[in-house]
Write a structure and sequence with these properties.
The complex is a heterodimer of chains A (250) and B (265). Chain A is of the alpha/beta class. Chain A is built from ten helices and ten strands. Classes of the chains: A alpha/beta (250), B mainly alpha (265).
């Protein structure tokens, strides 16, 4: 469903992403981990076609992001780190706008919008102005715009950052639902970036860990936590390597 | 190109939800009324004076088009210099500040569709402004008899000036994420474009040398005001129409390049 082939992104001398490759199969929910500044957002921006890679290829649902960008972008739902909302629009109008942008046929826009509203628990606020919504609801609207055109692939950049514990639980529930839908709805393949480890344990079955632009871990969650190791220990082991010696030995 | 309408529609709706559109419309209406009234009053005073001195020949040559409509449209074209940056400042800058550029650029939409959609929304607003200006010469048709084609040519001139300024404002907005910077940049660019004809006048007056004259002729061609004045005189010449078309086209191309440049970094 998602294939990253040897992706690199350099800004002058700075290497943000360094030869990262992975494949994600249909229906998988992958947790994309790494410390701040590891290159998570850059990798996701490459996969969604927002940025071109310096090297390598991104293929979404069989469409190369750079040879057939329109078809590839049509297959992706993307929630950037800060949800791309127009504060002056109402929820319903905004989702209809996004649906039209994503090539949902005119006749099906209404239906697509009400489906997204339903799935994200937004039916009650459909006529409210986005700017007047709470942060949790705005995050849900962001999620709704990512799924409004029922894309096979979902790319979510820190979907729970800045939310309170109840809201976090709700959003996680929503995401878990998107990957394992009840009959008839599209099953999404999900990549989800975060640095909140319990989040990964709650919804993901596979973990990709990147550090300083390189992929350092790519394995099923169950294997990583074998033998009673916690995900936190795994994370620390792979990312703490280049801390100053004093801290490492202490 | 099917997304152009979607993007333009959203942009127009947002424009009319924000107070900016209404502030601009009010300001523009008040200024238009003021300047129209002052041209009419000047005209009446002139007529009275000519009658007092029995200058009947001159009185016969007076007409509403040259004495009222032309100066009025001229002043309104100057008002557009600072009104249009107010409309265009948000076009691209607000998307970047909101993070919504990430939505547009990851949607199956071409950059041309984004640029054209936004330009058309702002252009529709300029059409409303010019229609407001057209009401005032319209009043003259009730009380007098200005020439219809000449008036129409003048309004076309104002519209073309407005559309060209909009393209320049759109370009300015595509360069930055701050609406204030977009406004100032657009205003400075428009002012320069407008002032080129003064530079040309200076060149023509100061330099009797042949080279200076060539330069001033060139500056005069680049400046928007001379092309506008031709149209206000009622002369619809392809040279002037081509000038405005090229100006609009090139600044939209520049805006497209600026939006695309996110991808080069």
């Amino acid at each position: 469903m998602i294939a990253a082939k040897d992706l690199s992104k350099r800004y002058g001398d700075l290497v943000a992403v360094d030869h990262v490759s992975f494949d994600v199969a249909q229906g998988e929910v992958v947790g994309f981990l790494g410390p701040n500044g590891a290159g998570k957002t850059t990798t996701m921006r490459i996969l969604t076609g927002f940025l071109p890679p310096t090297d390598g290829q991104a293929v979404i649902d069989g469409h190369d992001m750079f040879e057939d960008p329109l078809a590839a972008r049509r297959s992706v739902g993307y929630l950037p780190e800060s949800p791309p909302l127009y504060p002056e629009m109402d929820v319903e109008g905004y989702l209809a706008f996004v649906a039209k942008l994503k090539d949902v046929p005119r006749k099906e826009v209404r239906e697509a919008v009400s489906r997204a509203l339903e799935r994200c628990g937004l039916a009650d606020v459909r006529r409210r102005v986005i700017g007047a919504l709470s942060k949790g609801f705005r995050q849900r609207v962001g999620l709704a715009q990512a799924i409004v055109h029922s894309p096979p692939v979902l790319i979510l950049d820190e979907p729970t950052v800045g939310l309170d514990p109840t809201q976090i639980r709700e959003i996680r529930g929503l995401i878990a639902n998107l990957a394992a839908p009840k009959g008839g709805e599209t099953q999404h393949t999900v990549i989800l970036s975060t640095h909140i480890l319990p989040e990964v344990e709650a919804i993901c079955r596979r973990v990709i860990l990147i550090h300083r632009g390189r992929k350092v871990v790519d394995s099923p969650l169950a294997e990583l936590t074998q033998g009673g190791r916690s995900l936190e220990q795994v994370f620390a082991q792979h990312t703490a390597r280049d801390l100053p010696l004093a801290t490492a030995s202490a | 190109m099917k997304h152009v309408g979607t993007i333009a529609g959203r942009e127009l709706k947002s424009l009319f939800v924000s107070p900016v559109a209404y502030a601009v419309l009010t300001l523009f209406a008040v200024l238009a009324g003021f300047f129209f009234l002052s041209s009419v009053l000047q005209f009446t005073e002139y007529v009275i004076r000519l009658q007092q001195f029995q200058l009947l020949d001159q009185l016969r040559e007076l007409n509403l088009n040259d004495q009222v409509i032309a100066p009025f449209l001229g002043v309104m074209s100057v008002v557009l210099l600072f009104v249009i940056p107010g409309i265009t400042m948000s076009l691209f800058a607000a998307e970047k500040a909101n993070g919504t550029d990430e939505l547009l650029l990851t949607s199956p939409v071409t950059i041309w569709e984004i640029v054209l959609g936004k330009y058309l929304a702002a252009a529709a607003f300029v059409v409303i402004l010019v229609a407001m200006v057209a009401l005032f010469p319209g009043l003259l048709f009730i009380y007098g008899d200005p020439e219809v084609p000449k008036t129409a040519a003048g309004l076309l001139g104002l519209l073309l000036v407005g559309l060209a300024y909009t393209a320049i404002g759109a370009f300015a907005s595509s360069l930055t994420r701050s609406q204030v910077i977009a406004f100032v940049l657009a205003f400075v660019l428009l002012l320069l474009l407008w002032m080129l004809s003064f530079l040309a006048d200076l060149g023509a007056a100061g330099g009797t040398l042949g080279s200076a004259n060539n330069l001033s002729a060139f500056l005069r061609y680049l400046s928007s005001s001379d092309h506008f004045e031709q149209l206000v005189k009622g002369l619809i010449d392809t040279t002037d129409l081509v000038y405005f078309a090229v100006l609009i086209g090139s600044f939209l191309l520049l805006a497209k390049a600026a939006v695309e440049s996110v991808r080069w970094r």
